[in-house]
Amino acid sequence: MKPVNEQTILITGATDGIGKLTALQLAKQNAYILIHGRNETKVVSVVNEIKNTTGNKNIEGFVADLSSLDEVRKLASDILEKHDKLDVLINNAGAGFAAPRYGKDGTETRLTVNYLAPFLLTHLLLPALKNSAGSRIVNVSSAGQAPIHFDDIMLEKKFDGVEAYCQSKLALIMFSIDLAEQLKSERITVNSLHPGTYLDTNMVREAGVTPWGKPETGADAEVFLATSPQLENITGKYFDVKKETKAHSQAYDAKARKKLWELSIELTGLTEKVN
After folding, report:
1. Does 274 map to a domain?
2. What are the tens digits of pLDDT across the range 107-154?
3. Residue 275 lies in a domain
4. Which end of the chain offers a freer environment for a tag, N or C, measured as fewer CB atoms within 10 Å?
């Protein structure tokens, strides 16, 4: 893998919390940072703040509401227009327990933002990731995991914000395992992680939870998965912060993963094959 100061790194949800701290850490190492957020004013502000704080002028901002899959498509298009190589994609953006039930597309917010958006965005950015030898995909999941409701994935029959969140986070881990296998020959690694429990972020506070830990530990973990030489050929794994561990048992059920993949292809309108 290239030295960090030669890498182009995209971080979604990087205008506050763990994502912003991750961007700051990597900017200090002189990586070329692509920051995504859903609020244009905030994106501009954070881009300028990171430039001024680190002295790194290679910071770019991109705007998209990940609860809209059309905006995800435009985000991918905007990035590919400027960058034909991408060394690291960190799917960090997330919607928590307390997010509105429905997003811009009228679909369940947590499933769309936490799972369908990264599923789609990752696929669309694969050409740029393939153009950079030894690239990495880091999917930010959670220790909060619940089995997939295949018969009612949007939880229309019986909605619960916590259940919806936990389901979406397990889906992201399942996707990571399958994509890692598909991309092995491309020298692209795909890993997922739990960044820490109830860290002091807006998402946690909005859910009415008293924070347990500092967001810096989550950023450290994301940077570790994105850049550590120790993980050079490690792929398809799930980490609790920086320690490899096991996810929910459904993540290792090949039939369940296949079912989820097929459903995800249908919900995102992608063609079945990884391009």
Report:
1. no
2. 999 999 999 999 999 999 999 999 998 999 999 999 899 999 999 999
3. no
4. C
Beta strands in the chain (DSSP E): 8-11, 32-37, 59-63, 88-91, 136-140, 189-194, 238-240, 243-245
CA–CA gap between residue 254 and residue 159 (Å, rounded)? 27
Assigned domain for 10 exists: yes
Please tell me the total count of domains within the chain: 1
Tokens standing for residue 269: 């309108």
**Domain membership flag for residue 273:** no
Helix intervals (H) in 131-201? 161-182
Give the domain CATH number at 113. 3.40.50.720
* Structural domain span for residue 136: 4-268
The DSSP symbol for 98 reads: T
95: left (phi over 0), alpha (psi -120 to 50) or beta: beta
The answer to whether residues 236 and 181 touch, using CB atoms and an 8 Å cutoff, is yes
The first and second tokens of residue 146, run together, are 């619940």
* Separation of alpha carbons 237 and 190, rounded Å: 8
Tokens of 172: 């992201």
Token output for 100: 């509105």
What is the pTM assigned to this prediction? 0.93
Q: Which residues are catalytic?
A: 165
